[in-house]
């Protein structure tokens, strides 16, 4: 389970201010996490449709206590590790995921997807798949 700190609604293709909004979201969330030493998550949920539609993005931490806004993760995920030596690799991996979907190589659930930023410095994107 993940506990969102801050969220916003956006669209990858129709929001001209997406970079500024997401950067600001991260800046505010990290300011709230000064003394936090666990993994941090960028969670994508409440999808309007597919990757071309609007969705919510939340910065979250893991939790064991369910609250009204707790995000429950699905069960069937595919992990996409990120190459840490390339700053643009997160965007490149998302573009690869979208291409794989367009090519029929993956069948996405569009439930809850997330990026996991681990305390050891590694990062992965987890995509929910249909069973």
How would you explain this protein's 3D organization?
It comes from Wohlfahrtiimonas larvae. This is GyrI-like domain-containing protein. InterPro entries: Reg_factor_effector_dom_sf. This protein has a 6-stranded antiparallel beta sheet with strand order 1-3-2-5-6-4, with helices on one face. The protein has helices spanning 18-32, 89-102; strands at residues 2-11, 40-45, 54-62, 77-81, 112-117, 123-128. The chain is α+β, with helices and mostly antiparallel strands and 131 residues long. It has one domain (2-128): Alpha-Beta Barrel (Multidrug-efflux Transporter 1 Regulator Bmrr, Chain A).
Keywords:
131 residues; alpha+beta; Multidrug-efflux Transporter 1 Regulator Bmrr, Chain A; 6-stranded antiparallel β-sheet; 22% helix
């Amino acid at each position: 389970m993940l506990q969102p700190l801050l969220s916003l609604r956006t669209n990858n293709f129709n929001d001209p201010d997406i970079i500024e909004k997401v950067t600001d979201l991260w800046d505010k969330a990290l300011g709230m996490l000064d003394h936090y030493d666990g993994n941090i998550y960028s969670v994508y949920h409440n999808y309007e449709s597919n990757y071309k539609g609007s969705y919510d993005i939340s910065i979250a931490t893991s939790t064991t206590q369910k609250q009204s806004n707790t995000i429950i993760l699905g069960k069937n995920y595919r992990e996409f590790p990120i190459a840490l030596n390339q700053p643009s690799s997160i965007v490149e991996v998302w573009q690869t995921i979208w291409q794989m979907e367009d090519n029929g190589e993956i069948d996405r659930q569009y439930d809850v997807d997330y990026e996991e930023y681990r305390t050891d410095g590694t990062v992965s994107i987890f995509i929910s798949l249909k069973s």
